[in-house]
Structure formats: C-alpha cells, structure tokens
Amino acid sequence: MCRARRVDITEQYIFEDRAAEQRRLDAQSWLFDPLTERMLREAKIGPGMRVLDLGSGAGNVALLASRLVGPEGSIVGVERDPEAVITARERVHAAGVTNIKLVVGDVQTLDGIEEEFDAVVGRLILMYLSDPPAALRQAAARLRPKGIVAMQEADLASTGRHRRRRCGSRSVAGSFRR
Ligand SMILES: C[S@@+](CC[C@H](N)C(=O)[O-])C[C@H]1O[C@@H](n2cnc3c(N)ncnc32)[C@H](O)[C@@H]1O
C-alpha cells in the first residue's frame, strides 16, 4: 500500500539527501541522456546559442547542451540547492567544460537572471514545482523573440493504476533508494 507523505513542494524538494540525489541524477542520466539529446537536437539547439537550463541538478542537461552549442555558445543552469550547484560545478570543471555557468536560484522567480537567451531547456523539473506556469512565464520573459522552449517531463498519469498515480513521485524516490 502506498503511504504517501505530504511534502510542501514550495519549500522542499522530495529527494532530501542531496549526496544520494546527485548520485541518483547521474545514474538516471544514463537512461535519459539519449532521449534528451534527441529532444534538444529536434528543438534545434545548435552552435552559438545561449541556453538557460531550469533545475540543473547534477549538471547533466547543461553538459549535453554545452556540446550542442559548442565553444561559441553558453549555458546558464539554475538550481535551487546550493550543494547541488557546488558538486555540479566540480563535475563541469573536471570535464574541462568552460561554457557552463551554474547559479543558485529558484526557477519560479529567476531572480538575478537578467540575460537574454536563445533557448530555455529543462528535464524533470516542472513536475516538481508548485507553480510550473510561473517558471515558464519567467523563462519566456528572458527569451529572445522566437526563442526555443524545450522541456522533458515524465507523464506519471499514464504509468498505471490510479493508486500508483497518486504515489508516483514517492514510488520513483523509493525505487532508487532500494
Ligand atoms: C529531478 S531533478 C532533475 C535535474 C536535471 N534537470 C536532470 O535531469 O538531471 C530536479 C532538480 O530541480 C531542482 N529544483 C526543484 N525545485 C526547484 C526550483 N524551484 N528552482 C530551482 N531548482 C529546483 C532540484 O533541486 C533538483 O536538482
């Protein structure tokens, strides 16, 4: 039986142990990266673009996008958890990548992000927000005219029976702990 615990997602991200979460995101990346890369290519993310990555986590999407935009392009990743930003910066540095800037911030306000971007990307971020439209509005306000928005999310509503649906996020968290 699912014993869902109420989590206030305005204050808290459901995966509380940050070191474990960074490892989980990295493992998950093996599964998602080919799909994410295909989505980014189909969205026409390409050389020279300035890209905003929402909820950058361990930095995997930013790293993917940085390869597509090349040395003339750049990525700004926004992530709410300062610890995540520190470890993601270390990974980016270790990979020798110089066109990614990772900053601590809330994607629902994007305070402090003043640049204009050619594209906004994100993976598995809107589904964790209390106000996803606010994040998209803030992101769109920082896009150049005809800029690109490319988001990849999980559709938990189509994963099975009603009871599983209600507990979707907790089930995902639990399965990675096991
Ligand atoms: C499931 S992870 C996805 C990370 C990354 N996009 C990936 O696919 O590897 C979601 C990330 O969004 C971050 N996050 C959650 N709410 C946020 C918010 N309001 N503003 C910025 N980041 C947030 C979490 O801390 C977490 O690192």
Describe the protein's architecture and organization.
This protein is of the alpha/beta class and 178 residues long. The chain has one domain (18-177): Rossmann fold (3-Layer(aba) Sandwich). It has six helices and five strands; from the N terminus they run H-E-H-E-H-E-E-H-E-H-H. The protein has a five-stranded parallel sheet, with helices on one face. Helix 1 packs parallel to helix 2. It is globular, with a radius of gyration of 16 Å. The protein starts with 17 loop residues before the first helix and ends with a helix. The relative contact order is 0.16. S-adenosylmethionine binds at residues 13, 25, 29, 55-58, 60-61, 78-81, 84, 106-108, 123-125, 128-129.
Tag the structure with descriptive keywords.
single chain; 178 residues; alpha/beta; Rossmann fold; 5-stranded parallel beta sheet; globular; binds S-adenosylmethionine
Integer-rounded radius of gyration:
16 Å
Instruction: Tell me the domain tally.
Output: 1
CATH class membership: Alpha Beta
The ordered H/E elements are HEHEHEEHEHH
Low-confidence stretches: 1-7, 163-178
The CATH homologous superfamily: Vaccinia Virus protein VP39
- Measured distance between first and last alpha carbons: 16 Å
The coarse silhouette is globular
CATH topology: Rossmann fold
The class by helix and strand makeup works out as alpha/beta
Helix content range: 40-55%
